[in-house]
Amino acid sequence: MKPAFFDCSVPQSAWRRLAWIGSLCLALALGGCASLLPRGAAQTSKPWSNFGQAHAAYQRIQPFLTTTAQLRQVGIDPLTTPNITILNYADIVRRLLPPSGNDIAIDPGIRDCIQAQTACHGYEIDQRHIDRRRVGNFWLDFLDFRRETVTTGWRFNMLLLVVDDRVVYKLWGGQPEIFQVETTRNPLGPLQGFGQSVLGRY
């Protein structure tokens, strides 16, 4: 009979416990790999952090009443606020004046701007926040079998016409909610473009 201290057998329950711990560690390791997927952002959303704030600032602007000093109070200052394009008289005519011969009613603010000529200028404001991130299985993405990119964010555009430091016309547009999913599948993974690269040499 062998002494007890020579018995190196391990109970099956211990093996099952070790296997369970190993599986858990592997799952955590693979799950953590998702954080390694690329992510990018394009942000020009100052001074507003979301679409609602930008639209609320627009609603506070009243044509023929709001002054440029009041615009600065809501964060619209072409000299300090990023992503504001100053339009001159020629830019405004090209964008807003209908072709000659069209009997289209012109907004009073646009008419006043055209009559003021060089005394009128415009502010074109383009604010957006776009976030792009890759999701899904890290190894499928890393080996180029399957890549899934999710794009989220918002866009807000505003056009203001100013005559003698007073807003005479306003217009807005944009996308309150952006959500796009782009999926690319390559059945051969990293070998998908190998044939084309080889044939391209001949």
Short account of what is shown:
This protein has 202 residues and is an alpha+beta fold. The protein is built from 7 helices and 5 strands; from the N terminus they run H-E-H-H-E-H-H-E-H-E-E-H. The N and C termini lie far apart (75 Å).
Characterize the structure shown.
This protein is 32% helix and 31% strand. The chain is of the alpha+beta class and 202 residues long. It has one domain. Strands 1, 2, 3, 4 and 5 form a five-stranded antiparallel sheet that branches. The relative contact order is 0.16. The model has no long low-confidence stretch (mean pLDDT 77).
What distinguishing features does this structure have?
alpha+beta, 32% helix, 202 residues, 5-stranded antiparallel sheet
